[in-house]
């Protein structure tokens, strides 16, 4: 794959991307050449969904044009070739996160992946899966632990699992800045803890959580760890084995890929013991009118027609990110995250959520403007062609803990320029001046 202006030497470096390199990368993203409300688009909403380079758009179209066929089902040449490309895409995801091919399960998104884990555990609790699934069976008195900063997708499935099994859901609280209270976590996580679900990077605060500390607490009591990597996989080098987590989830549309595709990583021995979540075709070996036997993972968890062209496109996105270099993207993001936080926090009346947390961060900042609703701030910026996210970002408990209802979020990516970051900061100051004049 070719990337405009990319070099192997640059990809090996861990220095931040230069302005010239970012400008060359932007040529690969057609949508960044458009205008919004008479202004060049400044896309600062990659935390919600990222844009796609030509290599990704071409990969999905080329598959549909030349290889489209049902995978794992046909004996004809086209089906065999489609299956090979599909499984190559799985191998690409596995390499990207430091896993084996058989430890990657395709899902529609990270939300489905988290629900897959929760419902599989629920099925084990009802007796499915036999003796192998005994380790997953939750009973009254068992505890599931998550945190007060989670995206709803990493909270509600555990609420529902607790309701179905009689287990208790416990929540690690935050301090006044929004950081995890690890001292309290050490008290909450104990002999009854069976599973801990935590985000790697907060989609509101932008901070990189100390996952190793949470994993250490889990290992002391034999609990499983589920990592929400939706905001880390696009921006940081990710190695699930080095992190020592049991499960991790990611979503393609946040990392230059298409919508409708995500992935679940699970330790092989765990996936082999888990009962299926969705059932139907393509995940079975033998079926009678009264019972069925299931394939080993990952196919056990991939019932029905799969998201083949999307998987191929996600692999192309990962190839693109790898060619640019994840360490370089991380350095780029860290610099812009700090620039956003410092620039916004310097504005009178602006509160940057999590600004006081002394942890590394990605290129994301959420903020509250005193006396101005986040929707009004977002609309003002949109009038200038600046796209940001407004609302609670699917993290109502976190906003409630910080004493606000909603916030405005600016999030960067490898194609974001310094001028765009500064445009957000300047735009917020202009919004305050505008609304104060109208008050």
Automatic annotation (TrEMBL):
Per the UniProt entry, what is one GO biological process? cysteine metabolic process
State the source organism's domain of life: Bacteria
Q: What class of enzyme is it?
A: transferase
Q: Which UniProt keywords apply?
A: Pyridoxal phosphate, Transferase
Q: Name one GO molecular function term.
A: cysteine desulfurase activity
Its annotated function is as follows: Catalyzes the removal of elemental sulfur and selenium atoms from L-cysteine, L-cystine, L-selenocysteine, and L-selenocystine to produce L-alanine.
What protein family does this chain belong to?
A: Belongs to the class-V pyridoxal-phosphate-dependent aminotransferase family. Csd subfamily.
Q: What is this protein called?
A: Cysteine desulfurase
């Amino acid at each position: 794959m070719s990337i405009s202006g990319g070099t192997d030497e640059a990809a090996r470096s861990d220095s931040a991307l230069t302005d010239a390199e970012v400008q060359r990368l932007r040529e690969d993203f057609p949508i960044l050449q458009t205008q919004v409300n008479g202004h060049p688009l400044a896309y600062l909403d990659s935390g919600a969904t990222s844009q796609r380079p030509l290599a990704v758009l071409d990969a999905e179209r080329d598959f549909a044009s030349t290889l489209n066929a049902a995978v794992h089902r046909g004996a004809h040449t086209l089906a065999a070739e489609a299956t090979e490309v599909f499984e190559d895409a799985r191998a690409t995801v596995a390499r990207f996160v430091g896993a084996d091919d058989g430890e990657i399960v395709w899902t529609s998104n990270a939300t489905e992946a988290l629900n897959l884990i929760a419902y599989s555990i629920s099925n084990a609790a009802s007796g499915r899966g036999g003796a192998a699934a005994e380790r997953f069976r939750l009973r009254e008195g068992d505890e599931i632990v998550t945190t007060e900063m989670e995206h709803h997708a990493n909270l509600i499935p555990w609420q529902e699992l607790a309701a179905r099994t009689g287990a208790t859901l416990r929540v690690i609280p935050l301090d006044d800045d929004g950081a995890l209270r690890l001292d309290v976590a050490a008290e909450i996580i104990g002999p009854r803890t069976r599973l801990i679900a935590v985000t790697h990077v907060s989609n509101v605060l932008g901070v990189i959580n100390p996952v190793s500390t949470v994993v250490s607490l889990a290992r002391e009591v034999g609990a499983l760890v589920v990592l929400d990597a939706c905001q880390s996989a696009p921006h940081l080098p990710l190695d699930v084995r080095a992190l020592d987590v049991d499960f991790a989830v990611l979503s393609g549309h946040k990392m230059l890929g298409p919508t409708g595709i995500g992935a679940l990583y699970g330790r092989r021995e765990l996936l082999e013991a888990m009962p299926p979540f969705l059932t139907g075709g393509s995940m079975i070996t033998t079926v009678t009118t009264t019972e069925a036997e299931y394939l080993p993972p990952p196919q056990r968890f991939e019932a029905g027609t799969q998201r083949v062209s999307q998987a191929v496109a996600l692999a192309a996105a990962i190839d693109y990110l790898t060619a640019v270099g994840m360490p370089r993207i991380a350095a780029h993001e860290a610099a812009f995250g700090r620039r956003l936080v410092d620039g916004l926090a310097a504005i009178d009346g602006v509160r940057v959520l999590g600004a006081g947390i002394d942890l590394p961060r990605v290129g994301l900042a959420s903020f509250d403007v005193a006396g101005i609703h986040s929707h009004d701030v977002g609309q003002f910026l949109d009038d200038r062609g600046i796209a940001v996210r407004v609302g609670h970002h699917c993290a109502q408990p976190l906003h409630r803990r910080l004493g606000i209802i909603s916030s405005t979020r600016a999030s960067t990516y490898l194609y974001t320029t310094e001028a765009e970051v500064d445009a957000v900061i300047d735009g917020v100051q202009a919004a305050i001046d505008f609304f104060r004049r109208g008050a």
